[in-house]
Amino acid sequence: MQRNRHRGFVLVSVLWMSALLIGFLALISQNAQTNAGVAVAISSNRAEDLAIQSAMAMIRKGMIDWKMLGGEFDIGAVREAILTQPQWPQGLDFAIIPNTSKINLKHLTLSSMRSILERRKNVDAGEIDGLIQAWTDWVDADDNAMPQGAERSYYAGEGIYNMPANNFFQVPAELLFVRGYKAAFSDVDVNAVFTVYGKHQGVDFGSASRQTLQLIPGMTDETIELILTSRKTLDLSKRSELSLLLDSAVYIEVQPWIAEGAVNNIFTLAVFPASQDAPEYAYMEDIEFDPFWIGAKTLSVKPMARIGEY
Q: Do 82 and 177 reside in the same domain of the chain?
């Protein structure tokens, strides 16, 4: 009896997902007709740009249409459905990267940044207090330098004027202007692991990149490999799944970094050439969908940006 009930549940789930995909394909097909064949009408030097913009439009519309159908937002299913459309530009592939997969600079506490710096092999323990004070001087409203910090006089002496911002970070790359941070994160693509959008604290372990996970206290190479492999079949966005997967000591250390239940309507959309090899660079846009998912606005555009391993 229990086995039959389980089979029935699986059958209903499969039928529901099939119906959802069919409806989704119909929706984005209707909205993508105008993209078909447009590249033929333009000169070759604009063809690539037009293909990328056509792809971006299809991704944005496809994500909205999927949400309209009311199912769980499954990035893998959305991506597969969009790629199978006949209007999809040949030779291109794409990724949908949740904003919650990145560390939010605007909501990163000093203690959390200290924890990150303590893991950096190229940061001497004696430098950490100075780095934290330089961070504090950068974001605070006054021009009074802390004992080991840095304010306008320091940056002017380095030939950098109108710094620090004395405000929260506006773009992730701004972090590299803070005294000492360019060296501290010399091997990190700050645009790929940090964000300045949203209100989340911590990260979504179900979508965070390898490089992002490497910054989180408690993460070892073995634990990161376990997470990257296991999330192909497990929903590691949930604390319950992570607690069962990770060693108890590791879980206790990473628990404060888990962003479970964060509202995520901000995504990075990355378009790149289709290849069997993992892409290194992509055209990227940070997109914010409105609360009702009937429209979206572009927050930033990065024509050529590195894409991490997800």
A: no
Same domain, 120 and 210: yes
Determine the Cα–Cα distance for residues 127 and 115; give it in Å rounded to an integer: 13
291 lies in a domain?
no
Place of tokens 């940061």: 123
Q: In sequence order, what E strands does 113-212 have?
A: 194-195
Do 173 and 195 fall into the same domain? yes
pLDDT tens-place values along the chain, 310 residues long? 444 444 443 443 443 344 444 444 444 444 443 333 333 333 344 678 899 999 999 999 999 998 888 766 788 889 999 999 999 999 999 999 999 999 999 999 999 999 999 999 999 999 999 999 999 999 999 999 999 999 999 999 999 888 998 998 999 999 999 999 999 999 999 999 999 999 999 999 999 999 999 999 999 999 999 999 999 999 998 899 999 999 999 999 999 999 977 778 999 999 999 988 888 899 999 999 999 999 999 999 999 888 866 6
Alpha-carbon distance values, 209 to 29, 54, 191, 222 (Å): 31, 26, 12, 15
What residue has token string 């949930």? 238
Full residue range of the structural domain in which residue 65 is found: 1-90
Cβ within 8 Å of residue 118, ≥6 positions away: 125, 128, 217
